[in-house]
Amino acid sequence: QVQLVESGGGLVQPGGSLRLSCTASGFTFSQYTMSWYRQAPGEERELVAAITSGSRRTDYADSVKGRFTISRDNAKNTVYLQMNSLEPADTAVYYCNAVKITPLIRNDYWGQGTQVTVSS
Fold it and tell me: In this prediction, what percent of the chain has a pLDDT beyond 70?
């Protein structure tokens, strides 16, 4: 059974920090590109950050570059999102995503989401 379980969300003041974690089970984590997405009320889900299976490449949305850092620990089947200098515009539900694409298959898994609220 595939599971992605996010944790670490909460309420933080502007300028503060949070670290999100996503622990995976039920598939070979080290073979998957891992990403964080977010969705604010009334908005479409957007890609925040992604990291390839071997951590060789990371990508970030322009809005979070220099503030957020994605990392992974394949031994722990966990991907992280360190969020610094948080702004009210970062308020959203954050989702963990795992994807593996080959010529024969596309596997795409999602977590249940964790709420991040940035407010004074």
Answer: 100
